[in-house]
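Supplementary Note 2. Why include the ligand at all?

Several targets in our set were suspected to adopt different conformations when bound, so apo predictions alone were not considered sufficient. For every target with a known small-molecule partner we therefore ran a joint prediction. The input for pyridoxal-5'-phosphate is given below.
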Amino acid sequence: MKEISYKLEIAKILDQQGHNVYLYHKGRVALFAALRAMGISEGDEVILPAYTCVVVPNAIKYVGAKPIYVDVQPDTYSVRYEDVLKYISTKTKAVIVQNTYGLYWDLEKYRSLKEKGIFIIEDCTHGFSGFYNDIPNGKFGDVAFFSTQWNKPFSSVIGGFLSLNNTSLKPVLEEYNKNLEQPSLFDGLQISVQYYIHKYLLNDATYWPLIRLYRLLSKHNIIRGSSQGAEIESPIMPLGFFKYMSKSQISVGLKNIQKLSGVNLLRKKNASLYTLFLKQHGKNHIPETYFKNHLFLKYPLLVKDRALFMNLAEKFNIKLGDWFTSPIHPVSKGYEIWDLDIENYPNAKKLSAHVVNLPTDIDNTDKVIKFLGIHLHLIE
Ligand SMILES: *Cc1c(COP(=O)(O)O)cnc(C)c1O
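The joint prediction is reproduced in C-alpha cell form.
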C-alpha cells in the first residue's frame, strides 16, 4: 500500500520507525494532534517564536491554551534559548522550536527543559531532511511536525505529518486520531488539479501571474491555498479541520520525496553562492559557520524597501518570496486576538517588514545574483 511506503520513506530520512510517523491533511493538523496528545488545554501556556505562521498560534488556541511569544534574533531568525527561559512559568506545558527557512539554532540547550517535564515540539515545516549538528531535523523533540504544502521541502500540494519520538504519547495520540475525518472525493480532486497546475503551468514565465491568480482564488476559497480565509481572521477552528491525508496527497508526496536529495544538493549549493556574493559586498547574509549542515529551504535577505524590491524582482522574473510578512504571517492587523502585542517584539517586527527570500531550488542562480548586483544599494 502506498500509505505504508510513504511513511517508510519519511521515516528513513528522519532516522525514525514507520509506525511513529502519522499523516495528516496539513502540518497544522499534526501540531494540533500533538498538543491534544500532550493533554494541553485551558490554563496552559505554550511558548513559540514571534516569527511564524498564524496557523501555529491558531492550533494552540484551538486546544484552549495561551500562546506566549518570544522575540527572534536578527542574525539567526530564531529565538535565543536564554530568552525562552524568561517566559517559562508554572503554566508552561510545551515549547515550540522552529527551524525557520530550514535553519536551526542552539537546539541542544533545550534538553534541560525536557528534563523538567516541559514538552519540546519541533516545528520542522521548513526543515524536513535537513540536519542540525548531524542529527536529522525532528529527532530531538518529543514530537516534530512537518508540512508538505507546495512551498515546503517537498510537496504533496498540501499536507503534513508528525514524527513521534516520545512514544509514551502514542496511546493517547492514536486514540485521538480516531476522530480524524476522511477526506472527500472532492478534496482529492482539488489536490490532483493543483498538482497539475504546479507541475505543468508554473515556470519562470508564468510564475508571477499564476501566483497572483492563486492568491486571489485561495482568498475566495475557490482553491486550497495554504490558509483558508477564516484561519487568518480569527483563531476559531474551521469545520473539517481535523482531517486525514487523501490518497492523492500520498501519491504526489511519494513521487516528490524521491527527488528530494537532488533538490537539497541544489539548495545547499545555491545558498553558498548567495552567501559568498553577499559577504563579498558587505551585505547581510547567512553565516556559513552557524548553518553549514542546514537545509536552506529559502535564503532570507533583508532589504530596505520590500515593496519596491519585490516589484523590481517581478520585472526581472525572479521568484522572490516574502516569508514572513508579519510576526504571525500573513496576519496584518488585530494581533491582540492572537494574544500578541507586536510592539514587544521589535526584532520580529523589523525582520518581517524587511525580509525577502531568495529561491534556492533553481538552476539559474546567475540571474538572481545579477539582479542583486544591480540593486545592491537596496540591500541592507
Ligand atoms: C507552513 C508552516 C506551517 C503549517 O504548515 P501547513 O502544512 O500549511 O499547515 C507551520 N509553521 C510554519 C513556520 C510554517 O511555515
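The chain has a mean pLDDT of 93. The first strand starts at residue 21 and ends at 24. Comparable summaries for the other entries are listed in the accompanying table.
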